[in-house]
Amino acid sequence: MQDNQSTQPNIETMPLLPLRGMSVFPGMLLNFEVERENSVAALNAALSGDQLIFLTAQKNIMEEQPGQEGLYAIGTVSKLKQLLRIPGTRTVRVMMEGLARARMLRVSSTSPCLWAEVERVGEGAAGKGGARGEALLRRCLILLEEYAQFSNAVSPQMLLQIVNSGEPGFAADTIAQSIYLPHEQKQLALEELRPLKRLELICQILRHEIGVLKIDRELQGAVHEEVSRHQKDYYLREQLKVIQTELGAEDEFFEELEDYRRQIYALRLPAEGEEKLLKEVGHLAKQPGGSAEGALIRGYLDTVLELPWRRKTKERLDIQKARKILDADHYGLTKVKDRIIEYLAVKQLSPGLKASALCLVGPPGVGKTSVAISVAKATNRKLARISLGGVHDEAEIRGHRKTYIGAMPGRIIAGLSQARSSNALLLLDEIDKLGSDYRGDPSAALLEALDSEQNYAFRDHYVELPFDLSDVMFITTCNTTETIPRALLDRMEVIELPSYTDEEKLRIAKDHLLPKQRKKHGLAAQKLSLSDDAVREVITLYTRESGVRLLERELAALCRKTAKQIAAGESRGLKLRAGMIEPLLGPPKYKPDPVLPADEVGLARGLAWTSVGGEILEVECNIMEGSGKLELTGNLGDVMKESAHAAISYIRSRAGKLGIDPEFYKNRDIHIHFPEGAVPKDGPSAGITICIGVISALTGIPVRRSVAMTGEITLRGRILPIGGLREKTMAALRAGVHDVIIPAANEADLQNIDPEVRKALHFIITDHVDKILDTALNRRLFEAAQEELDMAGAGGRGRPPLQPSPDENTPGTAINIRQ
């Protein structure tokens, strides 16, 4: 910031704001908007000082950053009366009051804004100017009244102000500021320092403007007269049509047939299609007036002729612009973005490349549908969204035969007609929700449409003509591929969209969701702000999902609460931090997975995949005196029950090496329970967890609480690969786990895990249960407990050291060592 006082007595240094297409006159108030960065900086500099700023017009309004040579020397020293920042934009609305004319001597600084040394210039003799001034003022008022007849820019209040002042200079400035003039003429008036000469100039300008406005009004009158004549002709023609209809005239019908033929020839269809449509026109010619079949043929011809047979949009192949659009709309989703960029790159090298079909697979709320919409924008393709959820009828895809009453084309052809482009992007939403019944299988009807080797001649039952779909980009979305037929899935390139990590949700909330909701609820950024810890609190305690839909709803709830408090006058805005969320959103809906207080016998922690992400799956095992029964509870599926039996069989085969009574399957009952019994559970990945839990319960060795595991077990103890590793490891990190045991076959999947998760966890790779017993079981804690019992005289009860009796060290309870 610079000092407004210069070393010379009459020279002032102040911020300079270049104006485009306007000028400010002394004594006048003017509202306008400012967008350029250096102009906003000039306003900020004036606001932080004495609010004085030098306004001058730039010579070339197209110049973005004008220098001293691009600005007029004469401008106005003005006072910044009001400044309003428009939320969500860089635009600033200001109100300026002109104070005095001034001459710019030089531009003293250009960063961060323009500063200029200016010298205020005095005007000629003030006052009414005697008889000549009075005559000029009267003449100017007469011209102004005549100008007011042609324009709404002159108000009665302005005329009254001019009459009351009686000063030529004030009258000239007021008129020049109020009426529409090119900025060059306004600058001439501003640079004229003699009031009477300035008023003479305004009179000349008014005479010219009145002449132009008179010509304009005459032209408008002529146009209005011409329009009225055309309306009269149209009305008479319509009356004539009614008379001809009453008389049974045939000319209109023949004209309609000729119009159909002209449109058919203009399409330049292949011979097969052109011949069929002309034949339909021939059938229409044979129908009597008002017949039902004639209406059906007209509907068919109108539908077919409206199809975009040759209409295409110019595809955007600029990789940088496409990437910028995709990144601006979505955070993450790297695989989808890379695939689209790769397609555009190949399209540049091979323009004849046909579009492919992509299948976006992922849990709800991760952005499958919205990213498809963003892809259409990035590639400059028209978009048509087709929802397939609950569709059971094949005719919904291929259309109905036109012989049926109410027949219409299928959704694919209707989507292209809606998009009005033959190279549109068709979004087939929820393709995994397709059904089938006695009316056919819609998924089978999609086989031809999605096959790039066949869809160049797709036939809709209604249209009955081959339509080229090879330029159409198909993007389908689904939550799972298990319900999609194999033949249909084979025609699509599957791209998985995994669930978001908490850090990704934080970025999405801060960069996309919160600004969107603030704008929707009319809140400026300073009215509602959330710290990173506050957003994490909302994510952890109020949502449990793979995507961000619930998170957006909770942020919308915070915006509503804030708007309510502001409207009621309770606060001027909220700045939320951790610990301030509960009064607004209520008690937490979810609690973090608890960290176990100590290592426990028979309690192992597994990892499970769910539709809303990964979760910790605890396995509780109890050993009791009995007859060898195996009890499995917790709402388990058949696959999980089979995993438990496989684990027991492995333990029996290794009982001697594990230090377990070989007869345990005869004299012990084993109860394996999975908490949260109301939640169905299934899958083979809990096999290793069940095995470790049962070994712990049989040996009395506690399982380390810092270890979680996942993997399918075989009868030989081999660990087989599992799925959902990315979501499972995120659940392990949230639960405070440090070590994660995973199958060796999943080692390559670690590259797909979030870097923050990979950095925080220690992964133990294994292909056999024997290799991780020392990692999963806390033998040192067990041996210390045994020594403590021996010292207390509890070791002479005659039981094997690795087989705890039911009344001592009951499995499932923690072994605590006194210090």
Description:
The chain has 819 residues and is of the alpha/beta class. Helix content is 43%, strand content 17%. The chain has 28 helices and 24 strands. Strand 23, helix 26 (755-760) and strand 24 form a beta-alpha-beta unit. The two termini are 68 Å apart. The relative contact order is 0.05.
Note the total helix count. 28
Strand content: 15-25%
Alpha-beta content class? alpha/beta
CA gyration radius, whole angstroms: 40 Å
How are the strands ordered across the major sheet? Answer: 1-3-4-5-6
Largest sheet: 5 strands, mixed, barrel
Total number of beta strands: 24
- The shape is flat
Q: Residue share in helices?
A: 40-55%
Overall mean pLDDT stands at 83
Q: Brief description of this entry?
A:
The chain has 819 residues and is an alpha/beta fold.
Please describe the topology of this protein.
Blueprint: E1 11-19, E2 29-34, H1 37-48, E3 52-57, E4 74-85, E5 92-109, E6 114-120, H2 130-148, H3 156-165, H4 168-178, H5 183-191, H6 195-247, H7 251-267, H8 271-285, H9 292-306, H10 319-329, H11 334-349, E7 357-361, H12 368-379, E8 383-387, H13 395-398, H14 411-419, E9 425-429, H15 442-450, E10 458-459, E11 466-467, E12 473-478, H16 486-489, E13 493-496, H17 502-520, E14 528-530, H18 532-542, H19 549-567, E15 574-576, H20 582-585, E16 603-610, E17 613-625, E18 630-633, H21 638-653, H22 655-658, H23 664-667, E19 668-673, H24 687-699, E20 707-709, E21 712-713, E22 719-720, H25 725-734, E23 739-743, H26 755-760, E24 762-766, H27 773-776, H28 779-791
Helix pairs in contact: 2-6, 3-4, 4-6, 7-8, 8-9, 10-11, 10-12, 17-18, 17-19, 21-24
